[in-house]
Amino acid sequence: MAPAQRYIRWFADLTADDVALAGGKNASLGEMIRGLRGTGIRVPDGFAVTADAYRAFVADNGLEAVIREQLAALRREDASLEQAGTAIRRRFQDATIPRQVADALREAYRELSARYATDAVDVAVRSSATAEDLPTASFAGQQDTYLNVAGEEALLAACRDCYASLFTDRAISYRDEQGFGHREVALSIGVQKMARADRGGAGVMFTIDPETGFPDVAVINAAWGLGEPVVQGAVTPDEYQVFKPLLRREGRAPIIGKTRGGQARKLVYTADGGAATAEVATSPDERRAFVLTDDEILQLARWGAIIEGHYGQPMDIEWAKDGRTGQLFIVQARPETVHSQKAAGALTTYTLREAGERLLTGLAIGEAIATGRACVIHRADERERFADGAILVTRMTDPDWVPIMKRAAGIITDHGGRTSHAAIVSRELGVPAVVGTGRATALLRDGQPITLSCAEGAQGAVYAGTLRYETTEVALDALPETKTRLMLNIASPEAALSRWQLPCRGVGLARLEFLITNVIKVHPLALVHFDDLTDERARRQIGDLTRGYADKTAYFVEHLARGIAKIAASRYPEPVLVRTSDFKTNEYAALIGGRQFEPEEENPMLGWRGASRYYSEGYREGFALECRAIKRAREEIGLDNVVVMIPFCRSLEEADRVLAALADNGLARGEHGLQVYVMCEIPANVVLAEQFAARFDGFSIGSNDLAQLTLGVDRDSTALTALFDERNEAVRWMIRHLIEAAHRADTPVGICGQAPSDYPDFAAWLVEVGIDSMSLNPDSVIPVLRHVAEVERRRA
């Protein structure tokens, strides 16, 4: 074989079977270029410097003996990891690349430059170890990458440095941990044309939710400039979530999550003759804008789905956007190595059993809870200060931190997103982490007892003190099936994704109040009538929240629509009942700007709430925004499994007016398959059940309110606690009567109140009287399912 062929292989000549020759990264690039021709996926051209070239480099410079001696000294503890690694790297960097290898490298580089019509093309020089990017181990960041390398001599120097990085302290440690022999692992190098992401943006895409393992979503992180700071965790990137099953649906834009990051700085090319890249401040316009447009987000997600389909498994993909041409590129793809390795059919849940003072929040990595003492460390070489089982607190991590991270009970960082080094390694290690808190190193003290919780959705939390928690593990394939439809009560979109494995057939109650309070935070009418607001503080707050929105009502509609869509995506295509807002007047008033639009009521529980607001002059403009959001979730994003549910509908006349208001806002019952349910929480709903059934597609019993109004007991009164019982015979009569009347009209009845979750005997009674569905709190699903299955078995 000619030296050029032995030492150089163009990406287009490689396949996934060439890992031994070209390493994981390069083999994967070749597989994409060869296997995905005609799909429109763009991959920058380049070539691999083969593992044979590495072996020639080692042999020609007598480096095998150095490696053997230093690793033997390390095993005998005659040398530390740092000493052994430094000695090997120093010899590598002093070595000379063999002439035949160097000539082949120069020739290939000239050819690549010619392909791009330039004398010295700018390239990325990436290591690609022969044990790298395997389905069982990612080797993330173990070897070095060099960006904006231009010129033959610079390329040769970067290749030599790449070879040396095979023996960084972190790489030696990781191979020991994974059981790979040091002398059996060789290094290939990828030389790839750089996209000018320094003038655009770059980031990482997972074709599976990296936190929950939900397989139907692609998660994209994006930052301005070159992509290295995203992986390093030096910035908090934008995050976009796309629902993959609807990507091929014409006219749909299934972006179900879109969060702007905090990016004060970016990495760009430099031309000062020194370092190839430099960190600079982002512009005000960049800090206000998203890195990618919606069309670009969807294009990347489609590419991700194609790549995932080709490889037949979830993928971890790096992408770049060339700021000069506006074109997107895929620059790397590797198997996802966390959820793909988990045993199928098992569900482990963590639940806090104590409340505590919340000190910090950030992105939750994993779904576990950890307790321990904080250990605040600013540099990886302070590892001797770290006690096993402590919670690591630091600004950010890189591969040098892995030896400490392996000993930690939990990890907290100031900076970083879901694809940062801290996040990737935490998932691999199975260590919960809260990243991107902004101020953990300033707020937490060395030795402070804390609890780190990633069990409350996408937002992780750090609490003061050591809080009690419990874990539950369930084998899902061992659970029985039930004839009664079991559904979920969900408020938070993130909680919906984290509960996707629960054996439920839809969502029986999705509350808009959570989204409005925690995500939007603003009274809808304060957005409609922003120019008329008299509260200056509220004006400033709304201005900050709606920055970037020319139409402030679009802020409400977009955030609410995506939240609804994310909940609906978690159970698609099963039905998801979205209850329109059911705030009381005092709760509406507590929203930003709300006091100007809300009256004071003596008894808000029985006041202007639910259906009565939707058609009234005092709120119909706010209801119109809710309708726009639901319509957008169903018809633009594409989650048409959303069912509208109307709360607290007091009369037939009110039902007719609400249905007319829905139709006026583009949500006519029956059009585009839209179903409209009504809550049954007022005795009038039971007395007139057949007439309500003629107007709605189903009932959902709100047992708390129904019991309150049937028994005349304030459910929040501590003095009357003993009298409030949803199992009271009068309440049971109401429920039984509703079910019988609704079934005569062929209308289904479900229940979304707390009672079935709290009282097994009540759940059993509901089965006996023919309830069609029960919507349960997530922590109640498994025990209620088992109980209902047993009741059904006995009645069969």
Q: What report would you give on this structure?
A:
α5 runs antiparallel to α7 (152-164) and α16 crosses α19. The chain is 37% helix and 21% strand. The chain contains 30 helices and 30 strands. It has an 8-stranded parallel beta barrel with strand order 23-24-25-26-27-28-29-30, surrounded by 5 helices. It has a 7-stranded mixed beta barrel with strand order 15-19-18-17-16-20-21. A 6-stranded antiparallel β-sheet has the order 9-8-7-6-12-13. The chain is an alpha/beta fold and 796 residues long.
Give the N-to-C terminal Cα separation.
74 Å
Spatial order of the strands forming the largest sheet = 23-24-25-26-27-28-29-30
How much of the residues is beta strand, in percent? 15-25%
Main sheet summary: 8 strands, parallel, barrel
Oligomer classification: single chain
- The helicity comes to 25-40%
Would you count the extended β strands for me?
A: 30
Number of helices: 30
Q: What structural category arises from helix and sheet content?
A: alpha/beta
Q: Which regions contain 5 or more consecutive residues with pLDDT less than 50?
A: 132-141
Question: What is the average per-residue confidence, as pLDDT, rounded to a whole number?
Answer: 90
Shape: elongated
| Rg result | 30 Å
